[in-house]
Amino acid sequence: MSPGTGSALRLLAASVDAKAVAEIGTGCGVSGIHLLHGMRPDGVLTTVDSEPEHQQFARQAFRACGFASNRARFIPGRALEVLPRLADAGYDLVFCDGDRLEYLDYFAESLRLLRSGGVVVFEGVFASGRTVDSGPQPSEVLRLRELLRTVRESQEMVTSLLPVGDGLLCAVKR
């Protein structure tokens, strides 16, 4: 994750005064650290990843940064199996950095998870410039284009594409 992407995540979490954030794709915890820094001091990050070792790395990273263990809830599993179990309208921000082939499905779940005024953020939507390349593209890029079109056309969302890192698609739920 680029420093600009991390800074944008911190800003977005702070701008919605986030108390509850859902993260799809824990990774080694870098994005979670930025989100936690932007969240309210009593905020809780719920992070989902299918790789338990990723969550172990993140848990250690959060602890090393001084975050109390009750600031993060780690849920192992595939995002599309876990997300339906999370509370409707219970989240201020949803950050998506999982399987890009599933981003469109994450968007549908995010509409349900977000409160009014909440933000959904998708990382890596430029796909290293391939989303605007006119040549033949792999299915991941075709799915990203479909996501961009769907979010842009949604009447429920106010959207912006931020040119930081490999592209952040941000949308506020009306």
UniProtKB/TrEMBL annotation:
SUPFAM superfamilies: S-adenosyl-L-methionine-dependent methyltransferases. The keyword Transferase applies. InterPro entries: Cation-dep_OMT, SAM-dependent_MTases_sf, SAM_O-MeTrfase. It holds the Pfam family Methyltransf_3. It comes from Streptomyces misionensis. The lineage of its organism: Bacteria, Bacillati, Actinomycetota, Actinomycetes, Kitasatosporales. GO terms for biological process: methylation. This is Predicted O-methyltransferase YrrM. GO terms for molecular function: O-methyltransferase activity; S-adenosylmethionine-dependent methyltransferase activity.
